[in-house]
Amino acid sequence: MSSSRVARRSPVLGSLHRVADGTLLGVITATAVLAGLTLHWQHRWTVAFNQLETTRTLSHRLTESTALLEQHVLRATAQPQRLVPTKASNLIHLERPTTAPVTQADPDLLDTWQGLLQKPIRPGY
Question: What global pTM score does this model have?
Answer without folding.
Answer: 0.46
